[in-house]
Request: fold
Amino acid sequence: MSLNYEFFYEWTNKNLNLNLAGYKEKQLQRRIASVMKNAGAFTLEDYSKRIEKDETVKQQFLDYITINVTDFFRNQDIFEEFESELKILSQTFPSMKVWSAACSTGAEAYSMAMIFDKHQLRMAEKILATDIDETILKRAKEGMYKIHEMKNVPAKERSAYFDEKEGIFYLKSNIKNKVQFKRHDLIADKFQKNFHIIVCRNVTIYFKNEVKEELYQRFSDSLVKGGIFFTGATEAIYSPEIYGLKKISAFMYEKL
Ligand SMILES: C[S@@+](CC[C@H](N)C(=O)[O-])C[C@H]1O[C@@H](n2cnc3c(N)ncnc32)[C@H](O)[C@@H]1O
Reply:
């Protein structure tokens, strides 16, 4: 039986403030069909009613669709390269405005805050960390992590920036206070301007090509000249010059 995705996209847009039209269709539909089945629904009309009535079903749907996988210092060697680049950049820009877009649990934004602290780099304002998923943003603001989420955090940073209690790691307030979390939909919402660094990793892989291309242009427009766009390990930009960007490494682009 074919499922009425058009109805469902409209419904999620209106009722959940979630615009699914920009996501890769086949991949998205597979995920929706699978999470719907897990909830015991047979049609999308039925599934939407369940989402409406049952907060747990709603949460399962949102968690499954948004895919919140993340890590501190994700892809460590790449992050080390980024750390070196930040130090170089700070010579041109003594005070930097930073955005972690699609930040999930905040691990990426907090990793940057630790780097800023470690090298005593200056921020123009708090790191802006945004995501479409309000539940994950609540978690991010709490700054509490389980041991398996800490695997990439070096021992020195663990003791400098976290307090541990019964296997839970609590971020210290000096790092927590460096990040401001906000709900933001990369497809539907406006972008702020004048960033020196934009980090957006492991989310454009879910978007259609035309949406991705539009996003690259908008990220570029939001950077100051000489600013850096840091993207995911599998998200290399072909012909970055089209967007006014210059490749400086496999995952980093400089605004021309
Ligand atoms: C796989 S995680 C990536 C987290 C982090 N950037 C990293 O690389 O570790 C993808 C994140 O993108 C968010 N997301 C999905 N669609 C989005 C959209 N349209 N706008 C903003 N965030 C979105 C999800 O909620 C999820 O937290």
Remarks:
- Residues 5-66 form one domain.
- Residues 66-71, 74, 102-104, 108, 131-133, 136, 185-187, 201-203, 232 surround S-adenosylmethionine (CB under 6 Å).
- The chain has a mean pLDDT of 95.
- The chain is about 45% helix and 20% strand.
